[in-house]
Amino acid sequence: MDQRRAEPDRGTGGNPGTLHGEFTVTGNRKARCSVSLTERDLVVQKLSSAPVGRSKVALSLRDCVGCRAYRADDNADPAAYFSAYFYPLRRRWMSSGVSRQRVEHCFRLPALQDPVANLEEAERWARAVRERVGRQRYLGDGVSMGELPRPCRMMLLVNPQSGKGLALTLYNNHIQRMLNEAGIQHTLVITERQNHARELVREADLSQWDALVIMSGDGLLHEVINGLLERPDWEEAIQTPLGILPGGSGNAVAASVHHYSGASPVSSEELLVSCGFLLCKGLVSRMDLVSVHLSSSPRLFSFLSLAWGFVADVDVESEKYRHVGAARFTVGTLVRLASLRVYKGRLAYLPATKDHSNEGGPRNNKTLHCNNQASSLSPASLVCRQSRDSPRQNTFHNSCHSNNSLKVRRTESTPSRSATKALAGPSDSLLLPLEQPLPSDWVVVQEEDFVLMLAMYQSHLAEDLFAAPDAILDDGVIHLFYVRAGISRTALLRLFLAMEKGTHLATNCQHLVHTKVRALRLEPYSPKGIITVDGEVVEYGPVQAEVHRGLARLITG
Ligand code: ADP
Ligand code: MG
Questions:
Q1: What is the pTM of this model?
Q2: I want to staple 481 with a disulfide (CB 3.0 to 4.6 A). Which of 238, 293, 454, 488 is the partner?
């Protein structure tokens, strides 16, 4: 007799007891093991002559993505099986770091002659494992605001051209299996061209999807977020949980999500496995978005960065090194250092104050489907809302701003070009039209000669560029960095090298300034140049931006 029936969870008032069973291990039908399923672990003990203790392992259910039961391939065999899929952190070969590595544990139930009864029993175990994994997931996170429903209907958008052009291969090698193990149904959509994903999500029936997941670099997520915010029902649409799997050369958001999970740094396929694991866990958090106004293009939304000068140039110039993957930024940095230059312009910002960051924003709200606009309850924002419905009569939305904003708004006679073009998306409360002077409480940076300006809202600018170490997903803050002209090549190189570990702020570089802001405006003086938003080139010229706290939702695990 190889197997005992699992003890049912009974009469324990939501605190179910431990299940016990004896099975054989697949691969070696003679090797029997005793299995106990507690609330936190799957404890497996080999029943052999080995000394007790040595052959016992406790597998944490926190590392488990799923469990399923199935029949033997051979129809004549009445046995059934259940397999549990774990991705524990393991020490890497020849390195001090750790990364998630897949381990499958499979158990065979050959006890009864009746194959149906065997399968029922295997299914009972698989269900019990899944239920406990679900409870661990929930207990493990006190701050996340929701989780994906199970079963989950996921659209997975893959850009086959991103990075080294291997995204589809990476999907086949890692992600497809992992999602199946986690019981996550998904529909694979392979993008055919630039803006394909943007158009697709702009038109999609979003009631069909519980999550939109992007497997590419940051560029495809940029398309999806902007597609959602271009919809007439943008307010609902942007609440769709978004997921990211690194398949490109610029995988900043994936690296940030991995970092927020508390894990130590990894890259390439290890980052992919980590993000896949977090995706399977399916916990959803809020993410800040930043609205960006350019002089004549429509307003757009950004989740990562706004860059000018050195960083923007590297981003664009390094496109030609795309085949080396994430290392393209290192190569690009070295090349640009050799021809270091100064960028002239005027930079101004609205500082983030304690009051702002404690604003009754959405952080404390744990409901998944709620209105998430930080300013949604202020009377001024009601004005903003109305104005959205009649864009012609209005105005740029400065009404939530403290400095006699209402007066300014009323006296404005010509509508802002940006505002009239913004057909959808939340109103901006801190910005005046680009052609108007700055509000009086903004700070204007004294210098006009820069080496770079970088506004960031996530921790990582690339897999190995930990640029804003204290940034979190939804702090409602733009981390503004600029480097003043006069810095030596060596000092700049030192900064970028330190950025790999996020220690650049501790280098006491006199040319580097970091400040937390809620809005900013940049007016470059030179007629030509490069500005990037989320690593994508945008219209060059005056630009301004404002953060919208927790506007989107991201699956963070
Ligand atoms: P990477 O990190 O390698 O740059 P991205 O996801 O940023 O990867 O994608 C790069 C660019 O490719 C983006 O501008 C994106 O819009 C565009 N794109 C998306 N799908 C395709 C496709 N099928 N063919 C070509 N370009 C695409
Ligand atoms: Mg990109």
A1: 0.85
A2: 454
